[in-house]
Amino acid sequence: MTTIQELFYEINNHLLEDQQPSAYLNEISKTKLFEVYPFNMLDKLKKTEQSLKHHPEGNVWNHTMLVIDEAAKVKDISKDKKVFMWAALLHDIGKPDTTMIRKGRITSYDHDKLGAELSVRFLSELTDDTAFVKKVSTLVRWHMQILFVVNNLPFADIKGMKKSIDINEVALFGFCDRMGRTHAEHDKEEENIKKFLEKCK
C-alpha cells in the first residue's frame, strides 16, 4: 500500500519530469489515496466551483490541472522548478474554504493568504524541508498580485511582495495561472505580465 510520503515523491517526480503532469494527477485523484489527509485538501478542489465568466473550464481542480501543464512548459526558466511546480499544484488550495456567493457572484476573497497557510500544513505532512515549504507558500501567497497590480486594486502590495519574493518568479507563475483556463489569450496575458513588471519597478 502506498504511503502518503511515497505518494508525495511520486507526484514530485511527475511534476518535474512530465510534459503534462495533469495526466498522472487526474488518474491518482480518482483513488482512495485522495480521501486521506492531506491529499483530501486537493480533493476538495473538485467540489469547488468558480465563476464561468473567468473560469470557463469549471471547478478549481480543472483550472489547477491546466495551470500545472502550463507551468511544466516553463519550469526550467524558474529559479527553483520544484518550488514552482508545487506552487502550481497548491496555488488555489485556499479556494474551497473562501469560496462563496456574494450578490449572485462566486468569489474567493483572500484565498491567496489562506492558501499560503494551507500549503504549509499540506507540505509539512510530507516533508521536513522547511525551506522548500516556505518558498512554496510564499509563491502561493503572492500569486494574485498580477491581477491586483495590473488593475490597480486595493489588494496590491508591491512593497510587501518585493520584500518576500523575486517578482520575476511571480510574473512567470502568474502567466501560467492566467493561461491555465479555457480560451486564454496568450498575447493579452503576455501584455498583462509586462504591465505588472513595469508597475513593480
TrEMBL record:
It comes from the Bacteria. One of its GO terms (molecular function) is nucleotide binding. Keywords: Nucleotide-binding. The keyword Membrane does not apply. It holds the Pfam family HD. Signal peptide: none annotated. Coiled coil: none annotated. Transmembrane segments: none annotated. The keyword Transport does not apply. Residues 60-144 form the HD domain. This is HDIG domain-containing protein.
